[in-house]
């Protein structure tokens, strides 16, 4: 299994990711972002203005009342109404920005999911060969969720706290610079403690996120390989592996949460300490005349000191989630930045919908018309060399001349390079040197989609999609009529077993074939290829053994499928390729023998040994 690399994000990187994220939010809905920011400013300002108003309330309206014999409560009532108004604005703004950011986060999440999925579809096969599926999935689930959390909560609250802090500091200075400086000293002390805790907790949060990716990857791999695990009685090893990942995840989560949970009470109590000290020192300063402080100013200042410590605690807490989400965002952006498959081809191929089994090259004429030239299916490999990884060559000087309608079989031990040859033809990977032509046109000049569309591939691993049998066969040609589906199923010899199912063609099958047998799945995949009706076939013969009757049906289905088409059969059973027009024997990426079955037997070489059982294939 690919290990998920534990990455710590450098600061510069974080800023870049944040910038990109903000751009994403801004372009998703500029007006929502602008209104949210305005309401965040309003919310922060009204809380501070409300606290400052306490000074006026006490000094201008309450204190004079204490000295009046017949107190007039009218002005005080008005002032209380103003204060109510200020807090009401604060409340409304808070509500508005929370709601708006929630909606905005949903929109961003929707967009990111869409963009990432669309981009993923455009990635080359090499990306999926090199990356763990579970880890890719984790980007869709965990990372997008943390991103959403950040946009809807952490980021606006962080902004709100930061603005509150600035406003509070200005307000505190306006009341008493002496008390403000004193508050700073107390605060600097608590800040040191907070910093210590946040650095640790954010580190473990990142580790936790990585471990989560790893455990998802492991789960996915174990689920996919469940049957293999059972067959080899590898349950204890699988559990041991899982326990290891689970333990690491528990360790990281435990530490991350321990630091995060002690952070808040510490900050809360620092605030209480500051409160008591200010009440005491402010009172003493007012009584002794050390500072020009009124009762109202002290009350205001006390209120502000509470608002001073809270945002700092929140900022450090929100920073945790932001750092975590940025790591997630980076993983999503990495996926989005993976280069899409490049296609420089401009030669067009198109199927002729009216006539079965006929495809055309669209050749532009000088007068602007398009000339339709029938595709013959002549495939030539001309001195092809290839390596997946530089320096580790897999195919050596491959030469194949597959004339139209020819059945070419590839035989060789496992790992000899048979599948790689088919990967070259459909351009899942690009050849290093040499040339592959299709009716004389280098395949690098053909539009990739057209090229792949014109090659039908029946893979070793049959993959069916969730849906009815009808849907699955129609997958090969989405606009096929019901009759075409029945006909393809009949030719593939799948019709018989489909009729035996309770719901016939409407039987719903689960993603991985559900209750169907291996052979039945193969018959369906043959029917699927049959309906696609393409000029060239690549058949990666299934290795799994099926009962002889089904095997005969599969074989008959295959023969029908291959009739009249140029085909490449990757053979695992020699019995299926005896009738091939050309058999190529591969060994470690070299074609070591070539010819028909009879010719090869006469040569008494490698193929002869395989056929006579002196040598085994796998
Ligand atoms: N995506 C990949 N990246 C790197 N190396 C690969 C990749 N796919 C296959 N290989 C290597 O290329 C070589 C040829 O593999 P290939 O799948 O073509 O063999 P094969 O003859 O089809 O084997 P089998 O009969 O088992 O399917 C092997 O050594 C394999 O390890």
What's the structural blueprint in terms of helices and strands?
Elements: H1 11-28, H2 30-67, H3 74-122, H4 125-130, H5 133-175, H6 177-224, H7 226-231, H8 235-288, H9 295-337, E1 348-351, E2 359-364, E3 370-374, E4 379-386, E5 395-402, E6 407-412, H10 418-425, E7 433-438, E8 441-442, H11 448-453, E9 455-458, E10 467-468, H12 469-474, H13 482-491, H14 495-500, E11 508-509, H15 518-532, E12 536-540, H16 548-562, E13 566-570, E14 582-587, E15 590-595, H17 597-603, H18 606-611
Parallel strand pairs: 6-13, 6-14, 9-12, 12-13
Antiparallel strand pairs: 1-2, 2-3, 4-5, 4-7, 7-8, 10-11, 14-15
Bound molecules: adenosine-5'-triphosphate.
Adenosine-5'-triphosphate binds near residues 394 and 412.
Give a written overview of the molecule.
By secondary structure, the chain is of the alpha/beta class. Among the domains are: 13-26 and 105-337, ABC transporter transmembrane region fold (Up-down Bundle), CATH 1.20.1560.10; 379-454 and 534-611, Rossmann fold, CATH 3.40.50.300. Helix content is 62%, strand content 12%. The chain has 18 helices and 15 strands. The chain has helices at 11-28, 30-67, 74-122, 125-130, 133-175, 177-224, 226-231, 235-288, 295-337, 418-425, 448-453, 469-474, 482-491, 495-500, 518-532, 548-562, 597-603, 606-611, and strands at residues 348-351, 359-364, 370-374, 379-386, 395-402, 407-412, 433-438, 441-442, 455-458, 467-468, 508-509, 536-540, 566-570, 582-587, 590-595. A 6-stranded mixed sheet has the order 9-12-13-6-14-15, sandwiched between helices. A 4-stranded antiparallel sheet has the order 5-4-7-8, covered by helices on one side. A 3-stranded antiparallel sheet has the order 1-2-3, with no helix packed on it. A hairpin with an 8-residue loop joins strand 4 and strand 5. It is elongated, with a radius of gyration of 36 Å. The two termini are 24 Å apart. The structure holds adenosine-5'-triphosphate.
């Amino acid at each position: 299994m690919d290990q998920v690399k534990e990455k710590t994000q450098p600061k510069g990187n974080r800023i870049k990711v944040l910038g990109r994220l903000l751009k994403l939010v801004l372009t998703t809905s500029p007006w929502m972002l602008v209104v949210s920011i305005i309401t965040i400013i309003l919310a922060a300002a009204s809380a501070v203005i409300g606290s400052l108003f306490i000074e006026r309330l006490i000094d201008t309206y309450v204190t004079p009342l204490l000295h009046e014999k017949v107190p007039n409560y009218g002005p005080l009532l008005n002032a209380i109404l103003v204060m109510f108004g200020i807090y009401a604005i604060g409340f409304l703004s808070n509500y508005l920005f929370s709601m708006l950011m929630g909606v905005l986060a949903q929109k961003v999440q929707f967009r990111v999911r869409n963009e990432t999925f669309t981009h993923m579809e455009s990635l080359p096969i090499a990306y999926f060969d090199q990356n763990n599926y579970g880890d890719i999935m984790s980007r869709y689930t965990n990372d997008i969720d943390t991103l959403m959390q950040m946009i809807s909560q952490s980021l606006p609250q962080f902004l709100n706290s930061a603005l509150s802090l600035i406003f509070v500091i200005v307000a505190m200075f306006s009341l008493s610079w002496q008390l403000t400086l004193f508050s700073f000293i107390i605060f600097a002390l608590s800040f040191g403690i907070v910093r210590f805790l946040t650095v640790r907790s954010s580190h473990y949060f990142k580790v936790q996120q990585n471990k989560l990716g790893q455990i998802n990857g492991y789960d996915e791999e174990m689920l996919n390989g469940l049957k293999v695990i059972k067959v080899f009685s590898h349950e204890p090893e699988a559990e041991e592996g899982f326990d290891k990942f689970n333990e690491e995840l528990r360790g990281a989560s435990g530490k991350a949460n321990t630091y995060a949970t002690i952070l808040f009470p510490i900050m809360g109590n620092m605030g209480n300490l500051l409160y008591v000290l200010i009440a005491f020192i402010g009172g003493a300063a007012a009584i002794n005349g050390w500072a020009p402080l009124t009762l109202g100013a002290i009350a205001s200042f006390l209120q502000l000191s509470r608002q001073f410590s809270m945002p700092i605690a929140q900022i450090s807490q929100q920073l945790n989630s932001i750092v975590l989400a940025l790591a997630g965002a980076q993983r999503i952006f990495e996926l989005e930045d993976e280069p899409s498959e490049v296609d420089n081809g401009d030669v067009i191929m198109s199927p002729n919908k009216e006539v079965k089994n006929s495809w055309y090259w669209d050749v532009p004429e000088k007068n602007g018309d398009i000339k339709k030239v029938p595709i013959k299916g002549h495939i030539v490999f001309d001195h092809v060399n290839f390596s997946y990884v530089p320096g580790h060559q897999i195919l050596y000087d491959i030469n194949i001349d597959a004339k139209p309608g020819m059945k070419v079989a590839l035989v060789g031990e496992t790992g000899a390079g048979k599948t790689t040859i088919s990967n070259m033809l459909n351009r899942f990977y690009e050849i290093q040197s040499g040339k592959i032509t299709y009716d004389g046109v280098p395949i690098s000049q053909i539009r990739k989609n057209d090229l792949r569309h014109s090659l039908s591939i029946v893979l070793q691993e049959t993959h069916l999609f969730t849906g009815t049998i009808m849907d699955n066969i129609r997958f090969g040609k989405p606009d096929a009529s019901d009759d075409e589906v029945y006909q393809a199923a009949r030719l593939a010899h799948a019709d018989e077993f489909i009729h035996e199912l309770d719901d016939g063609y409407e039987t719903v099958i689960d993603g991985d074939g559900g209750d169907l047998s291996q052979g039945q799945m193969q018959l369906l995949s043959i029917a699927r290829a049959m309906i696609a009706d393409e000029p060239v076939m690549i058949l990666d013969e299934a290795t799994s053994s099926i009962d002889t009757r089904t095997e005969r049906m599969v074989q008959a289905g295959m023969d029908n499928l291959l009739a009249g088409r140029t085909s490449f059969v990757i053979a695992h059973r020699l019995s299926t390729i005896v009738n091939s027009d050309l058999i190529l024997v591969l060994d470690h990426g070299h074609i070591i023998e070539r010819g028909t079955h009879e010719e090869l037997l006469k040569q008494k070489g490698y193929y002869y040994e395989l056929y006579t059982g002196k040598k085994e294939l796998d």
